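Q: Okay, next protein. This is Hydroxysqualene dehydroxylase HpnE from Actinomycetospora endophytica. I've checked the sequence twice, so it should be correct. Can you predict the 3D structure?
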Amino acid sequence: MRIAVLGGGLAGVSAALRCADDGHEVTLLERRARLGGLAGSFRRGDAHVDTGQHVFLRCCHAYRGLLARLDVTGSTTLQERLDVTVLRPGAPPARLRRDRVPAPLHLARALLRYDPVPWRERLALPRAAAALRRLDPADPAVDAQSFGEWLRRHGQGPAATRALWDLIGTPTLNARADDASLALAATVFRIGLLGEPDAADIGWSAVPLGELHDTAARRALDDAGVRVRLAARVRDVARDLAPDDGGWRVAVAGRDGAQDVLAVDAVISALPPEEAAALLPDPVGAQVGAAAEALGASPIVDVHLVLDRPVLDVPFAAGLDTEMQWVFDRSAAHGALPDGAQYLVVSLSAADEYVGLGAAALVEHFRTELARLLPRAAAARLLDGFVTREPRATFRPAPGSGARRPAGRTALPALALAGAWTDTGWPATMEGAVRSGQTAAAVVTRGHHDRLPGHDDRARVAA
């Protein structure tokens, strides 16, 4: 088969590799001059800047499989066991570190010692965790509930929600507990914290994300025989009603403005939903447009601070009783730091209140917040400060959102959807994106959904 993959993010790269590995002729079209989508990087002067601070967990088998396929596992770091430092103003750091014992006892000691949660709510944690494990995330009634409301019904008050459930859930779901679907929250916590004891060990890229998802991805795609066209904007996608040369025609404009038309047997759209809605023929385009409107979007903002001295002694830390949610030391990936300097990135999920603020105000505000948590930061000199923001980073994982996410299979033959916003059973993460690409490849090459680990094979059809 001749297959066109539209979009070069993780979903598109995964779909293209899967199709090529199955022996098909694949063309990957990406409107940017690089691959990686929202999990990429760019140059700012001599510095390398990631478009967002992405981490993965040991349980992210599809994404880790992609890293292995790209031969870049060695360019990432994966904790030997979950270990999170939690910073608080005017208080000693707290710590969440798992023990090397079977689940669910692997976190028992850490949670009993976790003093940001009052004793009464700490003692209620086992009951809440047990109830969470009994939930079925595929149940529409579970999806329709708010995670925050469910927590309150199970003895988890504001302190526990803020200091534990939101500490982990907000960056993973890109929503706070009150705004999140119970089904998606249950997926995160059941797989990550309540399943295998090592499932939540945290991994991250030791190099700029572009080295993984662009440079290495291009190399792997080329080796697999995929034709990659960058700076190629898709203008139209249409069914060929007299398919002597294939079932689909894809009109493409190159960087020089020249246009051509690809005749292909199948199309995988790994575009953001708004772009897919504008390009794909009805009824799929209309259905995707309705899904995009119903799902909405949630922003992520990153505040980048280059300080003249080290102030953070761990690779990353969470913040509590502060607006600073998580902070990452990205010095090793910066590429052009002055001697003795440290490059920190403050990552803000569900960042509606920050996405519209000016860069200078955000830099100054979070420099002050950092000094409240790390006393050494108060004396450090700011060498550089800037902001990256993605207003439509993910869909909003609100109660009922599961029913609004379209499946990979569509009503039109040999047209599949991919992207972390589709019905993967996961929140909008790198893992979800990779799974969606693999599922879309299976749809067009074998005509059915592959059952992926952890994915309930619901039979909804787009349009």
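A: Here is a summary of the prediction. DSSP finds 15 helices and 20 strands in the chain. The CA atoms of residues 399 and 456 lie 18 Å apart.
Q: Noted. On to the next one.
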